[in-house]
Design a protein that fits this description.
The chain has 374 residues and is mainly alpha-helical. It has 21 helices and no strands.
């Protein structure tokens, strides 16, 4: 009996040793892939490391980093949450978790995690900012501003507080206060491109185009590859019909976007500027992995405009078979139905599109069009 117990102990120790070696091997490979920006492979290795050692906070944190780099925000938030759950006294892990939850719109859980951090470290500025943003997300604007004013009292020179305050003020419709907060953010941190882009967007909404364009140019001078600065400036140039200059900014958006949305925007730009062949070339790059059908609907629309109507209709029908909430697919079907003289079907497709996004300008335009039909 004693021999058997000793044997079991030896086996258990050996297994633990193997598990530790496996964990270290997976973790090391994951770090190597992460450094090389091979994020999908890094995620696999860190998943394996987490299985080899379920108590490892580091493997969950690195897994979250890999998923975040891949643009898989929900998976990233889940990994950071697991890291925080392993030790709620680990402030860094729980701040990451709260921030990731905020990023996917889970405001209640983000607020709960931020409060947990503040219970352990009541002056943690990151947690204060996350909590304020989460409160704003559920429209508790007064509470959010109160939090941020308290944060300003403890960290008056930190530009992040004023940037967060501007976001709450914008949601409350207080444009003047938001402008002042953004100007203060830039004063404290002249390299804050996100604040410059937000201020530019505010100026453009206020009709102050020259001021908005200046902020965008300043942001791009600081960070030429900044995604939001390029996207906002490209959109601005489109509205001013400056086609030639807009292209290079849309190309940067396509190259820097973490997913295919940038290529779709570039394709839309080419369609808008009367270059359907260039749009098809761009769409061919994403068609193979076009899970939601966004690229195929755009291809179908171009084919329809070229007179290849049966092929276009077949393509959009296939997309809607798999995704009945495809906004552009529903609108294209409405257009096809109208051209075929079927106003009732056109209204049906348009009303379905309105259920997906009632505020989309294309939906409103189509609603007005179909409602005018006899």
């Amino acid at each position: 009996m004693r021999t058997r117990i000793v044997s079991l102990i030896i086996v258990a120790i050996a297994a633990a040793g193997c598990s530790r070696q496996s964990f270290e091997r997976f973790f090391t490979r994951g770090e190597r892939f992460l450094t090389a920006k091979r994020y999908a492979e890094a995620a696999i290795e860190f998943e394996n490391a987490a299985r080899a050692n379920p108590q490892s906070i580091a493997s969950q944190m690195k897994l979250g980093d890999a998923y975040a780099a891949l643009g898989e925000r929900t998976n990233a938030a889940a990994a950071y949450q697991r890291a925080c759950a392993l030790d709620q006294r680990d402030v860094a892990a729980c701040v990451h978790s709260a921030a990731a939850l905020l990023n996917i719109g889970d405001y209640d859980t983000a607020a709960s995690e931020a409060r947990g951090v503040l219970a352990a470290d009541r002056f943690n500025l990151d947690a204060q900012l996350i909590l304020a943003s989460a409160l704003s997300g559920v429209r508790r604007f007064a509470d959010a501003e109160e939090r941020l004013q308290a944060a300003i009292a403890t960290a008056p020179q930190d530009p992040r507080v004023y940037k967060a305050l501007s976001t709450v003020q914008l949601r409350r419709g207080n444009a003047k206060a938001a402008e002042a907060s953004l100007i203060q953010t830039i004063k404290l941190d002249p390299a804050a491109t996100d604040a410059r882009v937000s201020l530019a967007q505010l100026y453009l909404q206020m009709g102050r185009a020259a001021d908005g364009e200046k902020q965008l140019r300043d942001a791009l001078a600081i960070a030429p590859d900044d995604l939001e600065a390029n996207k906002t400036y490209a959109s601005y140039l489109v509205t001013t019909n400056d086609c030639a200059d807009a292209e290079k900014y849309w190309q940067t958006v396509a190259a820097k976007s973490p997913d295919d949305s940038g290529y779709l925007s570039l394709a839309d730009y080419y369609v808008w500027s009367g270059r359907p062949d260039d749009a098809l070339r761009v769409l061919s790059k994403v068609a193979a992995k076009d899970q939601g059908g966004a690229a195929r609907v755009r291809v179908a629309s171009i084919l329809y405009d070229r007179g290849e109507r049966s092929k276009a209709a077949e393509m959009v029908d296939e997309v809607l078979t798999h995704d009945q909430s495809s906004l552009n697919g529903l609108l294209l079907k409405a257009r096809i139905s109208l051209d075929n003289g079927d106003a009732a079907a056109a209204r049906d497709y348009t009303h379905r599109a309105a259920e997906v996004d009632p505020d989309a300008p294309a939906v409103r335009e189509m609603l007005a069009h179909v409602n005018a039909q006899p």
